[in-house]
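DATA CLASS: polypeptide
GOAL: derive structure tokens

***
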Amino acid sequence: MFNTLTLAALLAATIGYRPVAGSPDEPTDLPDKLLAKEGELSVQDVHPLLTLRNIQQAAPQMSNAAFMEYLETARVSAATKVLQAFRETKQLTGTGKRLLQDLPLTEASGAYRDKIIRQGRFVGLALRMRPGMQDIGVRVTALGTQFTEREPGFKLVVVHSSDMAAPVAEVPLPRTDRVYFEWSNLAEPIDLASKPGGTWYIGYYENDLTGQAIRLDQNLQQRPGQCCGNAYMQFDKWSPYVQVLPFSQASGADEIAFQSNTNWGLNLRLEASCDLTQRLAGQVPSFAAAVRQQLAVDLLNLIAYSTRDNGLTDKTKALALMELNNRTDGQPGLLTQLSRTLKALDVDISGVSATCLPCAPKPGAIKFKSIG
């Protein structure tokens, strides 16, 4: 449905820390990424007990550098809890449904006579998301190869157009079969949404082969005719989401050429599902208040139940516990306030792909709202 790690990092940055000016016991060397931005609320603004001194004395004993990491982890943890609560109580159905499950680009294979002469190029398959697919997440889950010889030193090279000089990954995949297609699952699927936009190049260097690749004479950019068995049905399943273009890059060249009558001996299995990460990333401010309150609750819990024997007084612990719980006069504590904030959380997202909805969306905005 959405990438929690990606969104948690964005949400965590909406709340920072601010040292108490003039206090000799306050850590003052916070990195910029942890500091509250000018004009924005800090965690200390949520509750005055949440000074860096109190947090440090309540946390496990550690070095100053480790404490900085602790503060960052606390932010990310709070953001993750808010996202989990949102996921569990969302009302919009149909999101997260699987659209493709380990589907190969084609079930066909090349004829042995169609061997490709090695010319020292970088060759493979280029993948681009189709326009309007921001709600769809596509991942490459497995690689198929068809070579004339066993290739124990084969290495899959993954590059993104945002930085052609630095591969995203180089994955050793020893090939032990020859002539026929050999499939290997990828330990870490290639998530096309991890770098939105641009083109992914998935391939190999011809000089790394001892034999030759076997070419499949099929245009992966066009729908096969019905005379070609069920190939058109396979194409119809994955082509609405992604474009696949065989490519080659001559050694030492900057230009990339695209072909239509080869697959360079490669095949891919694809997985696709509805993924609202990009849309939710555009609605980060809608989550900010909940993240602030969740972080305050987490840190007050830390203070209230700290077992360290240091300068943190029993009075401070008692005050933290009192602020978490409802008061006898009916005033809600921070736990109740957080619960109400999560229930009132509205994230306004317009234009969610109809593919990810149980039915066509109605005109106007679509609202995610917690069940109250």
Notes: Residues 359-366 have pLDDT under 50 and may be disordered. The CA atoms of residues 44 and 50 lie 5 Å apart.
